[in-house]
Write a structure and sequence with these properties.
7 strands; globular; Vanillyl-alcohol Oxidase, Chain A, domain 3; about 35% helix; two-stranded antiparallel ribbon; 2 domains; alpha+beta
């Protein structure tokens, strides 16, 4: 995995995208991945892959450079096995954005700490790991992306990590077991937070109980966004969990669970 992720910046800087799943079943671990890059030929993607294949061979993993697949449009890509897909399941999601600095030097302590946190999440925690590794920088965004509400953490990231706990969290789960399961999951996510202290979470796939969500999901934009929120919605009419200004509200009768099935009340009421 260290060898694989050591190629993150090289592929990102070439405007490629890595998509990965690391899963555990009993004592077996599986990595499945795709590397995609639009607007190039089959031979060009083979050259992009070649250094990664060589490094994996050098450590005893006998892979050949796979035959690339080419789709003329994204819509056609989505209809193929392994393409974009949707679906739902009972699972708890957690999210972390890994900054470029964490993966810049594969020999650094920062890189090793990041890899150790991912390994612990899968190997010790038994959770599934997914990441999409890409670089949505300010330069890539251009105008108006450089002055939008998009989290600065995302602009500095080269890995969007998502973790899944799908072993429980169904309708029959007791409140106490739900809390203990989440506490266990959170303890492994905390290792990833500790490895990326100046970063945050991608809000659309984050834990609804993400600590300090204001900084984690909005970064340094939060104060400006809260000011706009108060100007445009002084009544607090529009509410969403982890939305801007949501800390001014709470839901009654939740028993410490992240449910919204209760009366919505103002904190200062």
């Amino acid at each position: 995995m260290k060898v694989y992720f050591s190629h993150n910046l090289r592929i990102n800087d070439a405007k490629g995208i890595m998509s990965n799943y690391i899963t555990k079943a009993s004592s077996t671990f599986t990595l499945s991945n795709q590397i995609t890059k639009p607007g190039i030929t089959v031979e060009e993607i083979r050259r992009l892959m070649a250094p990664l294949i060589k490094d994996l061979n050098d450590i005893g993993i006998p892979l050949v450079n796979p035959e690339p697949k080419f789709w003329s449009t994204y819509a056609k890509f989505g209809t193929q096995p392994g393409g974009p897909s949707g679906g739902t399941s009972n699972s708890r999601l957690v999210s972390r954005l890994v900054p470029r600095s964490n993966l810049a030097d594969p020999t650094s302590q920062t890189f090793n700490t990041t890899m150790a946190a991912i390994r612990s999440f899968v190997e010790d925690g038994g959770y599934s790991f997914h990441s999409v590794d890409y670089a949505p920088t300010y330069e890539t965004a251009g105008y108006p992306g450089s002055d939008s509400a998009v989290s600065p953490h995302l602009r500095n990231a080269v890995m969007h990590m998502t973790g899944f706990d799908s072993r429980q969290y169904d309708a029959s789960l007791s409140d106490e077991l739900w809390k203990s399961s989440h506490a266990r999951l959170n303890s492994y996510v905390q290792k990833l937070r500790d490895a990326t202290p100046l970063s945050g979470a991608y809000m659309n796939e984050a834990d609804v109980a993400e600590p300090n969500f204001q900084y984690s999901m909005y970064g340094d934009n939060y104060d400006r966004l809260l000011k706009i929120k108060k100007e445009r919605d002084p009544w607090g009419l529009f509410y969403a969990v982890t939305g801007v200004g949501s800390e001014s509200w709470f839901v009654e009768g939740t028993g410490g669970l992240p449910t919204q099935q209760g009366r919505l009340c103002r904190v200062d009421a």
